[in-house]
Amino acid sequence: MTRYLITGAAGMLGHDLQRALADRDVTARSRAELDITDPAAVDAAVAGHDVVINSAAYTKVDDAETDEATASAVNATGPALLAEAAVRHGAKLVTISTDYVFDGNGTAPYPEDAPTDPLNAYGRTKADGEARVRRIAPDSSYVVRTAWIYGADGPNFAATMLRLAATHDTVSVVTDQVGQPTWTGDLAHRIVELLDADAPAGIYHGTNSGQGSWYDFTRAIFAENGLDPERVLPTDSAAFVRPAPRPAYSVLGHDGWSRAGLTPMRDWREALHAATAAGVFSA
After folding, report:
1. What are the pLDDT digits (tens) for 59-81?
2. Is 167 exposed, middle or buried (0-12, 13-18, 19+ CB in 10 A)?
3. pLDDT in tens, 164-223
4. Which pLDDT does position 282 carry in this prediction?
5. Choosing from 100, 122, 150, 204, which is the catalytic residue?
6. Burial per residue of 30-64, b for 16 or more beta-carbon CB atoms within 10 angstroms, e otherwise
7. Residues 218-277: pLDDT tens digits?
8. How far apart are alpha carbons 77 and 75 in whole angstroms?
């Protein structure tokens, strides 16, 4: 029987991975239970497992601008330690990365092999983590890049918009950042499918299909939850200046799935409808 280790298990994806693997032999470790920057702890945790899925991450994008060392420890050193331990113990490793490894200046979906060129410290640390993992475990590691994730078990954009809707007549949301809203429930199942298919090691883009702006996403969130989407007003990024620049275009291509014999993940609007029906946004 395949034995799985999930790191970062207390987050949105970590919880959904546990649900997707509910009928299997799983060890789930939260950040409090496993510090992936501790070499001895990592080696002890990986021992006895066949698959390691690393969903632990430093995701405070703006804070990383002034604390890149901490972000790097979690996003680059940690995955490297997991890769080294996985190689020692003969395990496969899946580590989660991000659209922020790209500069966002593209006009067509980024292929999996596109050169990385991050705009901010967070993106730099994630790109470094990717490179280290693929260098250490080229034949037994998967880098799964995702973006704009939402789920039932953690803070996320969709939950924030619904919270604002309860206290504001209108919300203003940017139209000039385009990407792929992705339900962690879909992503978790796709990661399991990737492993079950014994897909070739490499980089995969784990996002729902299609594309939309944050404005489009918010209008869809409102509509799915019985709210008037006309309450969502368009604006641009100049109205929300933050320490870390965000990529304007974060659409990821999905050719890797076809090469592995899998279909791309469903359209983001279908996923949002299914997530709403599943009670992801229930109080």
Report:
1. 999 999 999 999 999 999 999 99
2. exposed
3. 999 999 999 999 999 999 999 999 999 999 999 999 999 999 999 999 999 999 999 999
4. 81
5. 122
6. ebeebbbbeeebbeebbeebbbbbbbbbbbebebb
7. 999 999 999 999 999 999 999 888 999 999 999 999 999 999 999 999 999 999 999 999
8. 6
pLDDT at 201: 97
pLDDT of residue 56: 97
Classify residue 105 as exposed, middle or buried by CB count within 10 Å of its CB (0-12, 13-18, 19+): exposed
For residue 283, what pLDDT is reported?
A: 59
Which two tokens mark 142? 């998967």
Label each residue of the chain as H, E or C: CCEEEEECCCCHHHHHHHHHCCCCEEEEECCCCCCCCCHHHHHHHHCCCCEEEECCCCCCCCHHHCCHHHHHHHHHHHHHHHHHHHHHHCCEEEEEEEHHHCCCCCCCCECCCCCCCCCCHHHHHHHHHHHHHHHHCCCCEEEEEECCEECCCCCCHHHHHHHHHCCCCCEEEECCCEECCEEHHHHHHHHHHHHHCCCCCEEEECCCECCEEHHHHHHHHHHHCCCCHHHEEEECHHHCCCCCCCCCECCECCHHHHHCCCCCCCEHHHHHHHHHHCCCCCC
Residue 122 annotated as catalytic: yes
Q: Which two tokens stand for residue 55?
A: 């969903």
Rounded to whole angstroms, how far apart are CA atoms 235 and 220? 16
Q: Are 129 and 97 in contact (CB under 8 A)?
A: yes
Task: State the pairing for strand pair 171-174/92-98.
Answer: unpaired
**Region 16-45 average pLDDT:** 97
